[in-house]
Amino acid sequence: MKYWESCKAVERHPEKLGGTWVFRGTRVPVSALFENLRDGATVEQFLTWFPGVERWKVEAALDHEVKALTESVRP
């Protein structure tokens, strides 16, 4: 998904986890955030489980996804 390229909190490199989008400066996949939230975890729990991820990066990823979803439904 190319739309993640505009989110400053994430990055991807072919040599890092096969090009999976990760939180910038970590090896934590962005998908791990959404999977954990889906399964009932809180942002606080996620930050505890993945201490290398900073709160601003999680908030930026969530905001980015909300923006992308709301833009995709506008006529």
Please describe the topology of this protein:
Blueprint: E1 10-11, E2 22-23, H1 30-38, H2 43-49, H3 55-73
Antiparallel strand pairs: 1-2
Overview of this structure, please?
The structure is a single chain. The chain is mainly alpha-helical and 75 residues long. It has one domain. Helices cover 47% and strands 5% of the residues. The chain has 3 helices and 2 strands; from the N terminus they run E-E-H-H-H. A two-stranded antiparallel sheet has the order 1-2. The two termini are 21 Å apart. The model has no long low-confidence stretch (mean pLDDT 91).
What's the mean pLDDT score?
Answer: 91
Low-pLDDT regions:
none
Structural class, by secondary structure, is mainly alpha
Helix content: 40-55%
Measured by DSSP, the beta-strand proportion falls in 5-15%
Distance between the termini: 21 Å
Task: Count every beta strand, where a strand is a DSSP E run of 2 or more residues.
Answer: 2
How many helices? 3
Element-level helix/strand string: EEHHH
Number of spatially distinct domains: 1
Would you summarize the structure shown here?
With 75 residues, the chain is mostly helical. It has helices spanning 30-38, 43-49, 55-73, and strands at 10-11, 22-23.
Keywords:
two-stranded antiparallel sheet, 75 residues, mainly alpha, 5% strand, single chain
